[in-house]
Amino acid sequence: MYKIAVIPGDGTGPEVVREGLKVLEAAAQKVGIKYETTTYDFGGDRYLATGEILPDSAVDELRGYDAIYLGAIGHPDVKPGILEKGILLRMRFELDQYINLRPVKLYPGVWTPIKDKGPEEIDFVIVRENTEGLYTGGGGFLKKGTPDEVAIQESINTRKGVERCLRYAFEYTRKRNRAKKLTLVGKTNVLTYAFDLWERAFHEVGQEYPDIERDYANVDATCMWMVKNPEWFDVIVTDNMFGDIITDLGAMIQGGMGIAAGGNINPEGVSMFEPIGGSAPKYTGMNIINPLAAIGSVQMMLETLGEEQAASYIDKAIAKVTSEKLKSLAAGKMGYSTSEVGDMVAQFVAEQ
Ligand code: IPM
Ligand code: MN
User: Fold this and answer.
1) CA gap 315, 12 in Å, rounded
2) CA dihedral 139, 143, 144, 148 (to 10 degrees)
3) For atom 8 of ligand 1, which residue has the closest CA?
4) Is residue 199 domain-resident?
5) 184 and 82 within one domain
6) What is the DSSP secondary structure assignment for residue 208, as one 8-state letter?
């Protein structure tokens, strides 16, 4: 019996989570998985009503679940940063979800802005370190608000933190069993401390994985290759900030935020799955947002829980919907409503 915490969150979060749960139920029925869900109302509305962002007890309570399923965090009436840092980043950090796993996979029938590239060429995975780098909050101001102001934002890279991320990436590349190539993405030509550590650790850990080819690319060049030759990549591993940036680029080449799913993974603890797009306030309540990213996140959740058969049914159902049904992946242009897309995926899961 899996215990799943559900945080629908802000904006269109609740709408896409509803469809994800619909598909979860279909997959669970299909393979005989038992689960129960508990819903939490963390997000902008709760904060505006009560002033509370994330109760201290919540993080401990969340540790007791097998997985967390999150819709979206971000509210137009709340200053940017409060909810993102107070809810999303706090959960990633305190639950030590040190991997942010983001597949870049072009499903059949999906339009990509990259000319002459299709599902064969656009299919790789980005492993983003999720608890260190520029995201730790290290640094500060000096003489703030004066002409002499200094702002320092530090990138923290610990050998332990880097090594566990790399090890996960090597294991993942082995398990994925495709080109068996792991590309470290960094900036060794300029960030000669942080990425020196990354590069040394990469080759040291890599000794334990003689079956995995090691490759390196600077982050700027990576942006170029992701557009020009996306087929060169199998698995990419990188730090928190670069991972944040290149996964938005990745989302675009796989058809947009409507289909980009992600997992915040603690391999030894509780992981959290979320569509990587935001709360899309302007589409809220209209039943036109694309739920496939949220549905893909359910697939990743099942995969991580070891329910690979159920995950594979969802993957095939998504492919059937993109190739045979949807006109576009964009909100309002799919040719179907949010709930109709959820219905179709659930039906195709049941029919396999
Ligand atoms: C993401 C988002 C977050 C991040 C924001 C909302 C804090 O952009 O999940 O990629 O920077 O990690
Ligand atoms: Mn981002």
Assistant:
1) 22
2) -110
3) 244
4) yes
5) no
6) T
Per-residue pLDDT at 97: 98
Q: Check: CB of residue 107 under 8 Å from CB of residue 322.
A: yes
Q: Is the CB of 244 under 6 A from ligand 1?
A: yes
> Distance (Å, rounded) from C-alpha 125 to C-alpha 122?
10
pTM as predicted: 0.97
Ligand 1 binding pocket mutation candidate from 89, 97, 128, 135 (most atoms within 8 A of CB): 89
236: helix, strand or coil: strand
162-219 confidence digits (pLDDT tens)? 999 999 999 999 999 999 999 999 999 999 999 999 999 999 999 999 999 999 999 9
What distance in Å separates the CA atoms of residue 12 and residue 155, rounded to the nearest whole number?
33
Per the structure, the complete domain to which residue 249 belongs is given by: 112-254
Exposure on the CB side of residue 271, measured as CA atoms within 13 A: 24
Q: What is the CATH number of the domain that holds 291?
A: 3.40.718.10
Nearest to 20 by CA among 62, 67, 71: 71
Can you read off the two tokens belonging to residue 145?
């608000």
Tell which phi-psi region holds residue 158, choosing left (phi > 0), alpha (psi between -120 and 50) or beta. beta
Pocket test for ligand 1, best of 84, 93, 101, 136 (most atoms within 8 A of CB): 84
The helix/strand/coil state of 220 is helix
* Main-chain dihedrals φ then ψ at residue 203, nearest 5 degrees: -75, -30
Based on the fold, state whether residues 129 and 247 are members of the same structural domain.
yes
Q: What is the distance in A from the centroid of ligand 2 to the CA of 212?
A: 28
* Closest to 238 measured CA to CA, from 94, 126, 73: 126
Reduce the DSSP state of residue 291 to 3 states and report it.
coil
